[in-house]
Amino acid sequence: MKENNIEGLSLVVIRGGNVSISKSYGHADQVSERRLNERTVIRVASLEKPNFANIVASLAQQGEIDLDIPLYTYLKEEVVNGDPRSKVITARMALAHTTGLTNLDGKKRTSNF
After folding, report:
1. Where are the domains of the chain?
2. What does residue 56 show for φ and ψ, rounded to 5 degrees?
3. Among 101, 96, 98, which residue's Cα sits nearest to residue 112?
């Protein structure tokens, strides 16, 4: 952590649906010297997107999901209640940010609709 100037690090390993390792190192805030612990909320923003995309790609390779079948087929729930377009959103569209949904910041993104 010191060599790479990492302020704090939390690590959780889940095996078989159970937490097998949960450790925290360093500071949540260096200025106040508040230590990082397992209750510290860490805002990771978009840092987790590549990991999620890798999981989805692995599931697709294993034949567990099809990137081009609407997510509604799997979830049986509209992404946006009352909007029929949400029934056609696929995993590929979600991963490519082409769902046509408004982002949480209120800005419209590229759309296929």
Report:
1. 1-42, 46-113
2. -65, -45
3. 98
CB 21 within 8 A of CB 12: yes
Mean pLDDT, the chain, integer = 84
Beta strands in 5-96 (DSSP E): 8-15, 18-29, 34-35
Answering whether pTM is above 0.70, one says no
Which residues touch 21 (CB under 8 Å, ≥6 apart)?
11, 12, 13
Locate the DSSP E strands across the chain. 8-15, 18-29, 34-35
Distance separating alpha carbons of residues 29 and 92, to the nearest angstrom = 37
Q: How far apart are the C-alpha atoms of 29 and 42, rounded to whole Å?
A: 11
What lies within 8 Å, CB to CB, of 51 at 6+ separation is none
Given this model, what pLDDT does residue 109 score? Answer: 47
Pairwise CA distance, residues 65 & 59, whole Å: 6
**Cβ partners under 8 Å of residue 80, min gap 6:** 86, 101
